[in-house]
Amino acid sequence: MRANLVLQTFMFCLVATHVSAIEMAARLRRPVAIASSDDGNWIYVANRDSGTVSMVDCGSLAVIDELQVGKRLSDIASRQDTLLVVDAGNDELVRLRKENNRWTVASRTPVATGAARIILDPNSQRCVVASGWSRTVTVMEIPGGEGNPQQVREIELPFEPREMCFAQQGKYLVVASTFDAQLAVVDTDKLKLISVKQIPGHNIRGLALSGDQKRLCVTQQDLNPIAHSTRDDVHWGNMIANILVTLPIAIVADPSSDVSRYREVNLLGEPGLAAGDPGTIVVGPDEEMAILFSGVGEVSLYRDGGLIQRVSVGERPFCAVRNGRNLFVANMFSDSISVVDVQNAKAIRTISLGPRLELTQSQRGEALFYNAKLSHDGWMSCHSCHTDGHSNGQLNDNLSDGSFGAPKRVPSLLGVGETKPWGWNGKVESLEHQVVNSIEKTMRGSSPTEQQVASIVAFMRTLHPRRDVLRVELRDSDAVLQRGEELFRVLDCVRCHVPPTYTSPKAYNVGLKDNVGNEKFNPPSLRGVGARRRLFHDGRASSITEVVSKYKHQLDEELPAADINALVTYLKTR
Amino acid sequence: MHLSRTRIALIASVFVTSTLHADDADKPPFSTSRILSVIDTVLDNHIDPPTRQQMVLFGAKLLYQAHEKPIPIDLSRRISRLSTDEEMFAYLESLNASFPPHRKLRTDNIIIGGLLRAVPGGSVLIDAEQARVQNQLAANRYVGIGIALAMKNNLPIISKVFYDGPGFEAGVKADDSIVQIDGRSTAKKDLVQIVKELRGAEGSNVVLTLKQEQGEQRELTVTRGVTFIPTIEGSRQLSEGQWDYKIDSVPGIALLRIKSIGPSTVHELKKIEAKLRGQGIRGIVFDLREGGGILHDVVLLADQLLEEGTIGHVKTIDSLVTHRSEAGSLFNDIPIAVLISRYSNADRVYLTAALQDRGRAVVIGEPTSGETYVKSHVEIPGGEQLLLATGLLQRSDGTTLLRTMDNRLVEVAAARKFASSTKADSVPVKKPSFIMPDHVVRIPLPNEGSPPQGGIDPMLEKAIAVLQETATQTPVDATSEQVSTR
Prior knowledge:
The complex is a heterodimer. Chain A is mainly β. In chain A, a hairpin with a 4-residue loop joins strand 4 (52-57) and strand 5. Chain A is built from nine helices and 34 strands. Chain A is globular, with a radius of gyration of 24 Å. In chain A, helix 3 packs across helix 6 (450-460) and helix 5 packs across helix 6. By secondary structure, chain B is α+β, with helices and mostly antiparallel strands. Helix content of chain B is 32%, strand content 22%. Chain B is built from 14 helices and 22 strands. In chain B, strands 1, 2, 16, 17, 20 and 21 form a six-stranded antiparallel sheet that branches. Chain B has a six-stranded mixed sheet with strand order 11-14-15-18-19-22, sandwiched between helices. In chain B, strands 7-6-8-9 form a four-stranded antiparallel sheet. The longest helix of chain B is centred in the last third of the chain and has 17 residues, at 408-424. Chain A binds chain B through residues 199-201, 222, 224-228, 232-233, 235-238, 241, 260-267, 271, 403, 405, 515-517, and chain B through 4, 139-141, 263-264, 266-267, 270-271, 273-274, 277, 296, 299-300, 303, 307, 319, 321-330, 332-333.
């Protein structure tokens, strides 16, 4: 257990600030999670940017109350008189209790950094928190009454976890990765990781069990490195496909199974009417299913495996919960809840979560970054490849290197504002130009306006590497880091990867010729390099260790194991 | 002109047009530089180009033939002596000067038509408008009114209305004759003129006056738009645009007839896979005997049918490109049989070679023959494009898939040797430079006896038998049958 994550529970109970409907302040909320009360009378909405929880009365379909809970919320779960809210801004699990019809903050418990999701175990008083950047899921006991959450086990994963669901009557916890498409199964009795499967694709944003409980349903995207970013390949979904994948849960949980033989792929959307960035899946009664198409602002409703209707909702529908005959959909960039009558397949009400302030340029840019309507027919948004500003870890064959035939690794945009020039060959001098290139030549969308480009660039400049959260073994760290730094200097890594950005403006031939003969590449910044799944322009290296040991990148001779470890450790902290 | 500016394509013959246009009269009579541009484009891009002198000789010969003049005995010797650009230019100028204008054709078009006959694998010149239409057709986003047209008794008759296209939506029927287009009569107009009048920008309207043979004249407004033409057909058409892929008489076996391979093919195949899922399919026949395709889309299709590994290679004048398939494939473990014929196009040969070499499909039909060049559209100055052989296809082991009649017998012997070597698990022998089916089924040539009776397709029957045998898990000794059934 890391020193900074020793569990400390703050015992003082805070009375949350209540805001009545008429007093709701103008603010940016950006709802990112939604939960229903056990009796179905209430919908609770966690707002990321305001750090508040909105209470929606299901009878009047109005916001009755709003509580200031934390700094930057990422998820919410409800059980009886308890709400569990994940505050990623403070790395805390906030427990709210309802007393005398008033919600109060009962406790704040530290959780691993990068907490993204929470799920309640249906068979116990436990919950699980997935912390992406920390690559862990934390199992916590939530006692009733006045007791505070206690950590039961922190389970390390080989990827950044995000979506979760329980299977086999709670015997298994299935966890999906944030960037690429990996699925892990945790035995909930033994609290042990029993299986990890890689499936093709990336960006898993929906995870649920089928109505018969036998198959795992996964919404995700699949970027094909063989396809080109031509209009034809984009139009027919050859370059990026938005898909619903189903897999037998027993196969996923079997560590020795070949999951690819049982993978069934269902296309979401059509040429001409694509379904960019598919997200949350809600499985309802009677073989009903709803899938959010986050990039194009729609909910897609299915019955008996067939599409019933695509219903327009707000901007970036991000999460949803079924409540009786209605589906409540939280629209992240509209600060609203759409109420969809599932039976009649139509949106019947839009509930505003409160007045908004005028958006800043970067806030407008964030909405555009996740808007698949910028692309041809709505196949993809910037986020589809640069997942949440980072990278989906895949290869894409676009024209950024001047021709097709040599697919390149999708670069992380974390810290991109300071790493001029752009593009793998370093030929793009302006970030605005790079954005226009991506929209027009990769996403095959219409030409963006100057205002749109400026907004997206403003948002991109707010993205910074998350080096603080990388899981680095810091035992004996000082000496190791010192040696790593010394090696970085002595081995002349600094010639191309110049601190503080750990890149430089020129393109160099470092013996990494691509498929079409390009030899000179701009050194990628090493800031946040520990968070990248694949390295080099074609993703040939799967870790920094491989870069140093297998590929001996710019090394005259093999380094001793201790030096490799020191150099890799040093790089992970950049 | 570099290959990277071109789209490497294996174009179906249906899209190929002649360089010899009947409506040349309104164009400038002769351009020496245009002829030289065509020659230089061939030299710069063709995988195995003829010499400049060979091309000029073929061009000159056709000019003599077009004017019904005897070919001079010393023509070959004279042309072979031309070495510099200036000499070549002067010769072509003098050649033009020595003939009067042709009654129908431009002189430079005749020479270009002739010189392209010297190009291995053949080549055609396509004007910018034709290139645009061909690209739209190949990409399955042809903008028009979505009909096929034929001339019958000097009347333009609609022979087919494509399902869900603009014409279909507007109520155009098959066998309608087009009486007027935007109020202008079609009488005394040829097919080319009528097609020209029907074409227009996406979203624009055209008013058609139509008449069924026994019906009243009627007027329809059709909005031009994209017409989707399926590239995969099934065993039986249920209705317009709807196919049954299962073979009625054979439970558990599906038939996919790949009519062409273009950008929409993978999308179509994914939808078909989802449709067939849960229907107890135990074997799929891919009929690859007819039609063409675009190389890039053939690679995308191969990727969908294969797990991670090498598909094959394409060798061009200055590069060797390796195509690889990624993890994840359609149809999981369902056995696949591929039908192939001696006439199968290069794209089908490349795809079949990959499926056969990787053990994903059992191949049924005839040994493939003919050329398997990669053909590309290469732009030449002035907006025209030249379709010519710019690459050679190779199997994953590097064997070039180019078979000529000269080496045919040697190759067949090599194929038998290869078959026996794989059976005995001995030292691998290089694979043949064509597709040697795992089960040879020959369709007799017209002069070789009676064609199959009652419409029975012997290749399909064999494929069904093989798949049924596989489904019952009886080991199939393919190699022993490889040559014995020939």
